[in-house]
Structure formats: C-alpha cells, structure tokens
Amino acid sequence: MQKVNLDPNIKNEFKSLNITENFSEPVLEVSTEELPGLLVYLRDNKNLRFRQLIDILGVDYPKRVNRFDVIYLLLSHEFNNRITVKTSVKLDEALPSVVPIFPVANW
To answer: Are the beta carbons of 54 and 73 closer than 8 angstroms?
Structure first.
C-alpha cells in the first residue's frame, strides 16, 4: 500500500476540511455542504482515484450537538489505498445523497 498523495492545496478548495490520520490512513472531516464535492474530487482526481465506496457507517454521540458522525470508507484499487471521510449532523438534519457519486450507496 502506497501513502495517499493528497494535494496540499485541497484545503483551499474545501474550507471546512480537517485532515488527520488513523493507522497510517488519512481521515478527512468535512462539512455536510462540502461532502459531495469532496467525494467527487476523491473519485475523479487522477492521483487518487477512490472509485469504490466500501461502506457507510453511522456513530451516535448522544451528548454532542452534532450527534451523528457519518463515515464513508473509500478504496482506490489503482493505488491500493483507503481513505475515510467523515461528516457530522444533528438529530433532525438531512445529508446530501451520495448515490449520484457512488451508486452502490443505494442499498
């Protein structure tokens, strides 16, 4: 597995983006508004090609205002890399659908 080569200018395009690492894999946290654009960027960027959505997870933190974390696990077969994308939402907040970006999300 290669190290994920994120463009250092990615934070200029996605203002809410926060990048951390977990077990040597990047974790990208982004606002719900910027989520679709970030997923398209990760899928279509020729240096990344995260074309497979592996899983969507939800984690409930009842004491937080943005109570739910929604987590997207992506895989790049071409570069043998994984990346995690996270966003947080309130109890009554809707997320934009990722089905147009990753049709497999329609399950």
So the answer is: yes
